[in-house]
Specification:
alpha/beta, 2 domains, 7-stranded mixed sheet, 13 strands, 46% helix, elongated
Length: 339
Amino acid sequence: MHHTQRSSHVRRKITAVAALAAAAMLVLSGCSGQASAGSSGGADGKPFKVIAFTSGNQTPVGAWWVKAVTARAKELGWDLTMIQGDFDFQKMNPAVESAIGQGADVILDGYTDVESIGSIVTAAKDAEIPIFAMDSATAANDAFALNITTDQQQIVDKTVGSLDAAASGLKGKTVMVIGHDPHPGIRLRSGLAEKALTAAGATIAGGAIQKVTNPATGRTEALSLVADYLSAHPNGLDAVWAGWDDAALGAAQALKEAGSTAKVSGVDALSETLSVIEAGGNMQATIEQPWPTILDTLITKVQAYQKDRTLPSKNFETVGVTLVTKDNASTVTPSDKLG
């Protein structure tokens, strides 16, 4: 009789433990991705699994992208793996490939040149996982289900037009073009700027695009490029076209120190650039690129794929930009203050 009662008691304890374990598992599964019923959309009712990566997380816009994607994933109930590359592709690429090996529904690429991620693209294609990207190529590329970036020709048209107006025409003027080849957008727009300036009758200082070697030292390199040129050719510059703001700010500083009135244009709409533009002086203009709007569009396309596995009808889109001058600088949200 005693043995029977003890066995019954043990069975009740086992049943209770099992019930508690099942309840705990239910709570854990309910917390995964913080998804609500019907919002996850992954295979077999699992949360929609997303891998996101960027090499540019150390830049202001790249850091914003990491935060914005993380917030949107939480809001949408996605199971997100975020990989930050720190411009180190030997570290980032294997980490992304490892995540792909664990399975995913979609991959998001932010500001990472397609030429640098060949192994990731191959792994994604082998696993049949589409990549949705922002500013990762300057032309259509079958690496992506969709890549959205800004209109590089429009950037050039607006910035060169602003310099033309400030210089009362570019014909016969000497203009320095500062670029950086490893960044696809800067590489393309620098080449387009060189062509546009030459077509307008300007002489390109140094006979070619002056190239910064490292974006981390872009400002000091641009300052040196302009200072060295002016040292060899006093008052020899009428304008400087720079492919991004940090280089533009370095060029503007060098011009100011040399007592030059030459104007500078940049791209990015950094808060420091906007302040310098508003103050007057050498900094003439910059470009606002609508990254939050682009991310919203990209997320909408991913949600369409999440719903019924519909891929975008085209894999490349460009969007317009805004020229920022002293007239409207106070109304623009700086790209390093997006979030």
